Amino acid sequence: MTSNDATTHPATLPSRTLGTGPAALSVSALGLGCMGMSEFYGTGDEATGIATIHRALDLGVTFLDTADMYGPFTNERLVGKAIAGRRDEVVLATKFGNERTEDGTSLGVNGRPDYVHRAADASLQRLGVDHLDLYYQHRVDKDVPIEETVGAMAELVAAGKVRHLGLSEASSDTIRRAHAVHPITALQTEYSLFTRDIEDDILPTIRELGIGLVPYSPLGRGILTGAITAEADLDPNDSRRTAYFPRFQGEALDANLALVAKVREIAEEKGATAGQLALAWVLAQGSDIAPIPGTKRITYLEENVGAAAIELSDADLDALATAVPRDAVVGARYGDMSTIDA
């Protein structure tokens, strides 16, 4: 991509394969994270969210990601409305495990086999579909052996309710144990220019096992787009304003925005936006990677799709490595890392 048109789209959005053998699943190279349409990143609007999903499908972004806890429950209903009549175009992924009540109260992480079945049935109903293409355990329940949880997930596959299985934020040991029970197609975890710790152990493990990677927050929760220049740019009820996201607080935010400025400089030389360059970097890390940048606006969706047309040279990758050294980002990715499997 050499044009200065930030919404230039590839003629055809390429596909990528997650998993191997019977567990292989073909998805669009870029997916769409739907969470922010319903919760966490300011006020959502259902009509706008549905319109964004429709535009995504028209552009070839057919890999849609949601979870029962988003809303809670409202995001699955929104996605279900959006794909009604277009189910055959969609690779549909949702998640269970972060249990919440209708009023939003968190009940903690639940990986008990009986809950796995109840959660899947409820998701199918809310989404208005007869099967899920990819079903993730959203967080690992440290009180339930992973073999029991994945065993229940495998029963869903046998029943035809789920086609492929995934894990989210799982450690290498958990991934190996899960994969021994039933082939795992994909691991969803945070991965971006700003979050690269999985490169040490987890990424080599899933590649050894033939498991694909689905990076969430590939734009560092939006900071890598360059659209955030200060805390004041965030909606008053945006969760990124809270201590739960240390990278957006005070001096940490200032330091991290300085890194984004360097990314923007490189992007401008290529006629791209900072966000497009950051997504292109994730895509360049391997053909077994399909990131799911989230947005609730068509404009940002179209910008993200433009990243698929950007080719990065070795010199470009070296420049980005220099601009954003792996240990340069200030702040933990969560203020509370206790639910992350380690």
Question: What do these coordinates show?
Answer:
The chain has 342 residues and is of the alpha/beta class. The chain contains ten helices and eleven strands. Helix 1 packs parallel to helix 9 and helix 7 runs antiparallel to helix 10. Mean pLDDT is 94; it is low at 1-6.
Characterize this entry briefly.
Helix content is 35%, strand content 15%. The protein is built from ten helices and eleven strands. The longest helix has 20 residues.
Q: Quick one: biggest sheet?
A: 7 strands, parallel
Task: Indicate the low-confidence ranges by residue numbers.
Answer: 1-6
Give the amount of beta strand, in percent.
5-15%
Assembly annotation: single chain
Radius of gyration from CA coordinates: 19 Å
Number of strands: 11
| Outline type | globular
Number of helical regions: 10
- The overall average pLDDT, rounded, is 94
Residue share in helix:
25-40%
Structural key phrases:
about 350 residues; alpha/beta; 7-stranded parallel β-sheet; two-stranded antiparallel ribbon; 10 helices
What topology emerges from the helices and strands here?
Blueprint lengths: L14 E4 L6 E4 L2 E3 L12 H14 L3 E3 L8 H10 L7 E6 L1 E3 L5 E4 L3 H15 L4 E6 L8 H13 L3 E7 L3 H10 L4 E5 L11 H8 L2 E5 L33 H20 L4 H10 L14 H8 L8 H10 L19
